[in-house]
Structures are given as C-alpha cells and as structure tokens.
Amino acid sequence: IPQYLDYFQTDTADNRFFYLVQEIVEGRSLAELLAAGDRFSEEQVKRIAMMVLQALTYLHGLTPPVIHRDIKPQNLILGTDGRIYMVDFGAVQLVHRATTAMGSTVVGTFGYMAPEQLQCRAVPATDLYSLGATLLHLLTRQNPSDLPQRRLKIDFRASTAVSDSFADWLDGLIEPVIEDRFASAEAAFMALQDPHFLRNAIHSNSHSLTIPKPSKTQVELRRSSQSLLVRVPIRKFSQITAFAFLLIPFIALGISFLGAILLDPLQPLPSRLTPPSLSARILMPLLNIVFPSSCFGFILWNSWISGGGDVTLSIEKDRFKFTRRMIGIKRSKKGYTENLQNVIWDTKKDPISIIDDEGNQIYKLGLHLSEAEKSWLFAEIKAFIADQQRDR
C-alpha cells in the first residue's frame, strides 16, 4: 500500500478542502502491462497473489476492517522495485459516504465484483473474489465477464493451463457463495504456500483455521483459552556445521606441522627441520588455540543469529515472555499481551514475526523450521492473539 506521508487543508471563502499526501509509486498497472502484450506465468501470478494477500491481511485486520471493494488490474501497480502496490481506495470512501448518509450504493467493477456486492453487501472475503477474478484476467488475458460460467461460477480451466493445485486454489477465491469461499486473506495465503492445507483453509475463518501438527516435529505447543506456550528446541547441527567441526582439528594439525617447519625464518631451510626455536614454541600453542576457537566461535555466532538455541514463547492473558537460551547465554523479553497486535509470515524462507502495537517486530520465530511446522505455528499463534483481541 503506498505509504501515507502527510495531510493538510486549504480554506476558501466558502469551503474547506482536505488533502492526503502519499508516496508516488513508480511503475505500471497490471492493466497497462496486459495491454502492452505482457504474459504472466503461473509462478508470476502466484507471486502477485501473495503480495496482494499480505496487503489484504493488514487491511482486513484493522478495526473496523477496510474492504477495498474494487481490486482489478487497473488498481494494482507493478513497481520498479518489483513489488505490487494496491491503489485507489475510492470505493471505501463511497461506501463511507453512503453509510453516513443512511443510503446505499453499489461499488466495484463489473466482472470483478463478488455477487454479494450487487446486494450492496461486502465482507473481507469480497476482496478475495475480486483478487481471484483479477488473477484469472492475468492468466487468460480475458476480462472475467467474458469467460464462460457454470452454475453462476467462472469456468476458467479450459481457458488457461495451470497446475491442478493452483486451479483448486483459484476456485476457493471465486466461489459465488461466501460460505464456500476462503473466509480470510490469511487462510488463502497459507493455502497458496502449501496446497496440503488447502482443504483446511476453505470453510475456515481466521480465528478457527486448524492445521494439523506435523508428525515429526519436536516443537512443543500447549494452547488454552487463556494461555499459549511454544517451545522450539535447539536446532540440530546441519551437515555443513558438522563437517566444519570435523575439519577444524585437521586444519589445526596441518598448521602446527607447517609452523614447526616454517615459523623460524632466522634459521636456514635445512635447520628448520630441527626442533623449533623458543619463539616457535610460544607462537604455535597460541595459534592452535586461537584458530580453532575462532572457527568454533564463528559457528556458534552464526547459529545464534540464524535462530539457533532453545526458544520458549509464553503468552498469558495479561503478559507475554520470550526466552532464548544457547550455551549458557540467555535472552529474555517481557511485555503486555494487549500490545501484541499481529503475526506475519512473509515467505517460506522467512521466520514468523510477532508484531506489537507500534509495528515493531518483537520476535522472529522458527527460521530453521520446516514449511509445515511454520504453517502450523503461524495458524496457532495467529488464532490465539486474535481470540485475545476479540475477548478484550
């Protein structure tokens, strides 16, 4: 979403005008790219969908939820930085005016509007329908209104060649009946990341989304209506780390051997094969200590910054505490549960980030976990924080 920068007003003799200042987005809309002949692959469309779903997760998570109501290729800009920007929130403004004036109005664009919009009704899942229609336009290069329909649903499969799993996911966006559609942007996002969870995501809202616990996980999770405890045990050494530990002694021995021969430059070469001088006898033990210690320290430091250690996250009704331990080093962070506002998970490689009410990342959880483990943790933590917010 283009960044909000400032606002101001100007007064005239008979009126007052209000202005919002936003950043300029350098790029072209998806509609312009389609008109220029660009073609979008399945992977490109998935990437666009994930970025839009992240924006919708934020908008729908506001109080009250902000529903765009007019998602279409013209309102999605591909920036020069490769990111997708959602623009033109005019439909939100029109609905606000109609609401405050005790009237009603139909907003949206034909072909991209969910059926409920024709009844002047919109919910967060309404934006998901518009997103699905937009993605179909990118894939088929046809306006969704021109595609065939079957039982009031867009029948797109004959018009584009995509994988079965992605086609099933698109079906979850464009269901004409709200109850059969993805109910939240979070559910659609997670199902897109892992088709294994597609069936769980459909028919589930953001507070009741259930994802099965991975069978081989060592992560401990205990959740009740009042508390949540997550414990991620210390990461096992990777193959690269294990190889490095095995290699360090051999490197140290090799340096010792070379040092015994070469470290006394004041003696002629043949005499370097004789017992080393006093300086060599002092330097070699130091070298044998410093080098392995440096390598060992680097491996531990790399493991620490990449999410290693034993991690415990405890969230009670009023307070939360995060603790991380590794080789005797302990780091803790405490705070109030009411300050926990959101949980995000950007990509498969990124950790789960818990966000406070000021937009700061309190902690990044599970960088080294598998995709299935992160999907499961994300859903559980997200649901718990949402339940606490609803209860307040």
Report on this model:
By secondary structure, the protein is an alpha+beta fold. It is 38% helix and 19% strand. The chain contains ten helices and 15 strands. The protein has helices spanning 30-35, 42-60, 90-100, 124-140, 164-173, 185-193, 198-201, 239-262, 278-305, 371-391, and strands spanning 4-11, 16-22, 27-29, 76-79, 84-86, 149-150, 153-154, 220-223, 228-232, 310-315, 319-326, 329-336, 340-344, 352-356, 361-365. A five-stranded antiparallel sheet has the order 8-9-10-11-12, covered by helices on one side. A three-stranded antiparallel sheet has the order 3-4-5. A three-stranded antiparallel sheet has the order 13-14-15, covered by helices on one side. A hairpin with a 4-residue loop joins strand 4 and strand 5 (84-86). Helix 2 runs antiparallel to helix 6. The two termini are 28 Å apart. 27% of the residues are buried.
Chain-wise SSE layout:
Layout: E1 4-11, E2 16-22, E3 27-29, H1 30-35, H2 42-60, E4 76-79, E5 84-86, H3 90-100, H4 124-140, E6 149-150, E7 153-154, H5 164-173, H6 185-193, H7 198-201, E8 220-223, E9 228-232, H8 239-262, H9 278-305, E10 310-315, E11 319-326, E12 329-336, E13 340-344, E14 352-356, E15 361-365, H10 371-391
Antiparallel strand pairs: 1-2, 3-4, 4-5, 6-7, 8-9, 9-10, 10-11, 11-12, 13-14, 14-15
Helix pairs in contact: 2-4, 2-6, 8-9
